[in-house]
Request: fold
Amino acid sequence: MFRHFIFVFALLLFSGCASTQQAGSTRRNPSVITAEEIAGSSVKDAFEAIQLLRPQWLRTRGVSSTSSLEAIEVATYVNGSRYGGVENLRNVPAANVIELRYLNATDATTLYGTGNLGGAILVKTK
Reply:
């Protein structure tokens, strides 16, 4: 009987500790910026949204080889089409953005081919 009581007590104790996330709160995805997140900030373009909400996306990835000392830049795609470097995202109004998504180099190369060694930022607009 006493063992049964201890078992039930331990079960209740651990089940109460299992969920530390508060009700009503949402976890943000480190690879996605939603329109809701953008609307909750005071940014004017997609570049500023990334700079404020996920600045790690903008970090260059170092040099690609010893023969070239150029840093590997993150590529950008707007609605599936290549859009150039990250600075071009200053031309995408924040109000038009539905979603921003970061892809690592492997996923970006799989989806869009070579030329994505720094990863890619995908922009979905209205």
